[in-house]
C-alpha cells in the first residue's frame, strides 16, 4: 500500500506539475483521438506503449481485449456501452485493438481446465470460440508456443471483425472517417506488430 500512496504524492509533486497546463485544459472536457481496446493484464500500459498523454486515449480493458458482437439488450453491457460512447459521443478517429504475448485469457482457449473454477471468465471467453476453431484448423498438433502466438494474433483479428458489427462503426469505416488497427505487443521485447489486412499478417512497427 505504501508504494501506491507514495506514488500519488510523487505524481502530484512531479508529473502533475510537469503537465499542469495540460490538466487545466482537460478540466472541462476530453477529446481523445483514439479508442484503445486492450487486455486488463497488469503488464500492459497503453499510455506507456504509445507515449501518449492524458486526454489522448479512451481506454477499454477487459480479459483478452474482447469486443462483444453488437446487440441491443436490457443487460448492463460495459464494453459495448464504452465503445458506443467513444464513437458516438467522443467521435474518436481511430480504434486500436491491442493483443499481447503470454495472454492468460487466450491461454484458456487451449487449456479449458484452467478456468473450471472461474465461471464468469469461462463464459466471457466464449466470445473467442471462433478463434479456437481457426487455430485448431491451422495447428492441430500440440505445438504450445506456436499455438499461443497464433491464438493471440487470431484473436486480435477476430475482435476487429466484431467491431464492424456495430452499425455506426461500419458506416464510419466505409465512409473513410474511421481507422481500425490491430496490434500485437510482445512483453519481453517491447516490439509492437501491426496487422496488415492485405497480407493477412502482423508486421513489426519501426
Automatic annotation (TrEMBL):
UniProt catalytic activity: hydrogencarbonate + H(+) = CO2 + H2O
Binding note for cofactor: Binds 1 zinc ion per subunit.
Cofactor field: Zn(2+)
Source organism of the structure: Oceanispirochaeta crateris
GO BP, one annotated term: carbon utilization
UniProt-listed PROSITE patterns: PROK_CO2_ANHYDRASE_2
UniProt function note: Reversible hydration of carbon dioxide.
GO MF entry, a single one: zinc ion binding
A Pfam family per the record: Pro_CA
InterPro entries the record matches: Beta_CA_cladeB, Carbonic_anhydrase, Carbonic_anhydrase_CS, Carbonic_anhydrase_sf
Record flagged with keyword Chloroplast: no
Residues binding Zn(2+), per UniProt: 39, 41, 100, 103
PANTHER family the UniProt entry points to: CARBONIC ANHYDRASE (PTHR11002)
Assigned keywords, A-Z: Lyase, Metal-binding, Zinc
Record keyword Lipid biosynthesis present: no
This enzyme's EC code(s): 4.2.1.1
Xref: SMART domains: Pro_CA (SM00947)
Protein name in UniProt: Carbonic anhydrase
Family: Belongs to the beta-class carbonic anhydrase family.
Amino acid at each position: 500500500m505504501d508504494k501506491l500512496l507514495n506514488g500519488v504524492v510523487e505524481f502530484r509533486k512531479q508529473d502533475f506539475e510537469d503537465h499542469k497546463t495540460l490538466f487545466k485544459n482537460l478540466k472541462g472536457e476530453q477529446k481523445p483521438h483514439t479508442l484503445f481496446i486492450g487486455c486488463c493484464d497488469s503488464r500492459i500500459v497503453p499510455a506507456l506503449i504509445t507515449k501518449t498523454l492524458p486526454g489522448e486515449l479512451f481506454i477499454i480493458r477487459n480479459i483478452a481485449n474482447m469486443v462483444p458482437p453488437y446487440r441491443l439488450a436490457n443487460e448492463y453491457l460495459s464494453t459495448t456501452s464504452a465503445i458506443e460512447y467513444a464513437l458516438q459521443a467522443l467521435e474518436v478517429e481511430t480504434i486500436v485493438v491491442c493483443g499481447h504475448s503470454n495472454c492468460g485469457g487466450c491461454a484458456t482457449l487451449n487449456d479449458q481446465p484452467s478456468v473450471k473454477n472461474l465461471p464468469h471468465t469461462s463464459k466471457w471467453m466464449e466470445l473467442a470460440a471462433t478463434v479456437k476453431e481457426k487455430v485448431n484448423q491451422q495447428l492441430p498438433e500440440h505445438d504450445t508456443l506456436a499455438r499461443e502466438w497464433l491464438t493471440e494474433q487470431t484473436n486480435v483479428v477476430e475482435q476487429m471483425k466484431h467491431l464492424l458489427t456495430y452499425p455506426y462503426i461500419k458506416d464510419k469505416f466505409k465512409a473513410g472517417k474511421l481507422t481500425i488497427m490491430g496490434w500485437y505487443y510482445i512483453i519481453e521485447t517491447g516490439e509492437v506488430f501491426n496487422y496488415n489486412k492485405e497480407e493477412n499478417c502482423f508486421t513489426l512497427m519501426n
